[in-house]
Amino acid sequence: MSTPSQPNQNPAMHLPPGLSPFKALFFGALLCLLQATQAGDFWDLPPAPPPDEYGNLLIDRTSSKSAVKPVAFSHWIHRRKFTCRVCHYELEFNMKQNTTEITEAGNRSGKFCGTSGCHDGKVVFGHDTANCEQCHNGNRGYQKERFSELSKLPKARFGNQVDWGKALSRGLLSPVKYLALKPDPNVSFKAILLLESEWTGIPPAVFPHRPHTWQLDCSNCHPDLFNIKKKTTQHFSMQANLNGEFCGVCHSHVAFPMADCKRCHPEMDN
Amino acid sequence: MKKLWLVLIALLLATGLSLAQNGVKKIRPAPQNYGKVVLNRYSEAARLAPVIYDHWLHRAKYTCRLCHVDLGFAMAANQTDIRAADNLNGNYCGSCHNGKSSFEGQKIFAACEAKTPPQDTATKQRCVRCHAQGQGVTPQNDFAAFTEKFHRVRFGNGVDWMQTESAGLVKLIDRLDGVSAKGKPFLNPVDSTIAPHTNGMPDIVFSHDKHAVWNGCELCHPDLFPSVEKNKAHSYSMNEIFDGKYCGACHGKVSFPMIECQKCHSKPVTP
To answer: Which class for A144: exposed (0-12), middle (13-18), buried (19 or more C-beta within 10 A)?
Structure first.
């Protein structure tokens, strides 16, 4: 870049002044490379952790800075007993790791993890010195040995290898649906949506509201993730899902991963 | 040459970012920050920090109507053309923050004291009481202590303002001498039931009574809701409300957020 710009030697190439053919070629190659990685991403599914670590998080917003180990949180331990709604709606846990302002003082005063009926020191161990290591252990696979408790639940191919939806609909699990804010029994939104896929040859995705409303509140998805305008959700593509937007906020993190094509695109072979 | 590369890289990044604007969950403000407004229409241009306005502190003392109707504050941040001179002349903030008025026996501090930004540090110190953005000012009223005795709800400020008001824990001033029109308030019309567009959603029950305590008639009619004629229902959608129109002018910003559907969709659907 330090060489003075050469006069354009080949007028047929119509290069902008200052851009030598070599640089143009290099830049073109770079663009192609970028394109290639983007196209490759379509099939580059996120790495699959072992089933007993799927949905496990290490929360470290302030822990390490405060010289304690990050918190290990396992979704599969909690989702057996509580619906997503309880924590992500009533208790206002954000959907992204390390963005919720969970503090020791908050937990001790009955907020977040320490909410009454949860880790309040009565129902389950609380935020006290004797129990630090129960959460602050920095071990993503903490309590792996308890994973066998899920062995009787219906099987799935990916994620925790548990079909959580079936487990619920067969009554094998009956997670608590609320702590204080009871879901409105009159909201009976059951619409099943058919989403044409972006590519020809890929069968449409089918979205049933019911299995989602068993677990979630309307406002968990609307209007932030999906506005409710018909056919106007912008940039709702498979790529966006894979980037952790739209369906990808939950699917591939906690809910069944997108490697399980068939569960949304039922007519696919995989 | 370097510039060209930078521009191209910036373009690539910008495209990436513009694609990432949908499908992401917004992070909710903490209770003390719900309804916080940052005003920066002229502040930074006048080398002052932007103004931080907390709704929770003011709405515990005055009705919405008083500021948004009588004093002429717009419903969106930075839309009101407030200048130091206006405050000095007793308009906008200066209607109360004039150094003379008092609230519960306490003198209300004066807003802007001069038309031009102050040069000396002592006066600048006084300015940061409102021009507080990024100034590390400890507010005189602590949110947690101030709202401690109020009725609680889960979302928004975590305060059930309606209950708090009807229990007499806050006493709202609705009219200001020399500013507000005198006269008897109108009788509130009855509750209305509104049928939603979508099957499976319960009907909406709208209480005029509950709204009128804070808003009177004029905050909503005729600007936000022009159709006050009977049997002439104006159709408005949840989409428009989410975009900040109609109910969304307040709900989701200052009044309770649109998180609990059943707070408005509260009537069982008649089969």
So the answer is: middle
- Alpha-carbon distance A62 to nearest alpha carbon in chain B (angstroms): 17
A16 has a pLDDT exceeding 60: no
Question: Tokens at residue A12, please?
Answer: 């047929």
Question: pTM here?
Answer: 0.80
Interface membership of B144 toward A (CB under 8 Å): no
Q: Which of B84, B80, B91, B76 is nearest to B45 (CA)?
A: B84
Which residue shows structure tokens 């006050």? B228
* Cβ neighbourhood burial of B187 (10 Å; 0-12, 13-18, 19+): exposed
Q: Do A89 and B268 touch (CB under 8 A)?
A: no
Contact between B25 and A218 using a beta-carbon 8 Å cutoff: no
Per the CB < 8 A criterion, the answer to whether B63 and B172 are in contact is: yes
Residue B200: φ, ψ to 5°: 95, -5
Query: Closest chain B residue to A234 measured between Cα atoms?
Result: B22
How many Cβ atoms sit within 10 Å of the Cβ of residue B89? Answer: 13
pLDDT for B64: 97
Pick from A220-229, B77-86, B150-159: least confident: A220-229
Query: How far does A224 lie from chain B, in Å, by closest CA?
Result: 5
Shortest Cα distance, chain B CAs vs residue A114, angstroms: 15
ipTM over 0.85: no
CB contacts, 8 Å: B21 with chain A: 234-235
Specify the range with the lowest mean pLDDT, choosing from A214-218, A224-228, B53-57, B164-168: A224-228
Alpha-carbon Rg for chain B, nearest whole angstrom, is 22
- pLDDT single digits (tens) B31-73: 999 999 999 999 999 889 999 999 999 999 999 999 999 999 9
User: 3-class DSSP state for residue A72?
Assistant: strand
Contact residues, chain B, for A92 at CB < 8 Å: 28, 154-155
Sign of the torsion formed by the C-alpha atoms of A227, A233, A234 and A236: positive
